[in-house]
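Tutorial handout. Part one gives the primary structure; part two gives the three-dimensional structure as tokens.
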Amino acid sequence: MDKLHLNQHISRRFNVELEDVRSQVLQMGGIVEEQLANALKVLVSGDKVLAKEVVAADARVNTLEVDIDEECIRIVALRQPAASDLRLVMTVVKTTNELERIGDEAKRIAKMSSEELDGVLSEGMRTELTFMGALVRDMLRQVLDGFARADVETAVEVVKSDKLVDKRYKKIIKQLIKQMVADPASVPSVINVLWAVRSLERLGDRCQNIAENIIYMALGTDIRHVKLDDVLAEIESQDTD
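Part two.
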């Protein structure tokens, strides 16, 4: 095999390897999506059996994280990717780390929600929790779609959505605090709900982190610690170049 054909073969093989790790991330994301969906059901129902399924799924997520990290290390060591390919590998590593933490938060929600809540969740509170959970689920679904397509617009929408989650979180926390003040006997059970809601809020932050990584992967622009308006202006300027 001459040098040209060898280089072409290596290049094709490298592309296959990159596509394989992307696919593994999406596989991991699918498991985490199911974990979150089930954890949200536990949050409003207290289903102990379903809670155990959420916890059990965490082992699969952890295994995938390790496998993907090892493959990325191998790719960097052997292929020495440059520019956009290196950004992709870095984004894969960061995304799998965030997904693993999302799985941990889903597990925490399921554990807290399967504790005895002694009827502390009113229908109004169940509605609030369901709505907040739907917001977070949509963020996760969108950000995985954005990762699959390296879609900057979708990533930006996810970053924006986190503000809605934070707003709902603050509203729910105020309601739960009022409930504990009005009924001190409910405090132990309400605290479990508080921890579960806090995990939901963190899930939104994790999705935002993944979205920021997607923007970095696609544009080479690090938007962490930058105001969203400035980010949008930077993206628009790159689109017009």
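Part three, for discussion. Helices lie at 3-45, 48-79, 83-113, 123-149, 152-182, 187-219, 228-239. Residues 3-239 form a domain with the Methane Monooxygenase Hydroxylase; Chain G, domain 1 fold (CATH 1.20.58.220).
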